[in-house]
Amino acid sequence: MDDYDRREFLSLSLPGFLGLLAALPALCTVATRANAADGRLPADAAMHWEAFLEAVAAEAAKQHLDAWNQDDYVRRIAAIAGRLHLGDPVLTKAMEQLTARLKHGKVDFQYLEERVDFGLCLVQFDVGEVIKPHDHPGMTGMILCASGEIETANYDLVEKPATPPADGHQLLRRAGSQLLKKNDISTLTAKARNIHTLSARKVTQLVDIFTPPYNEERSAQSRWYELAPEPRPGEPSLFEARVLNG
Ligand SMILES: [Fe+2]
Question: For residue 229, is it within any domain?
Answer without folding.
Answer: yes
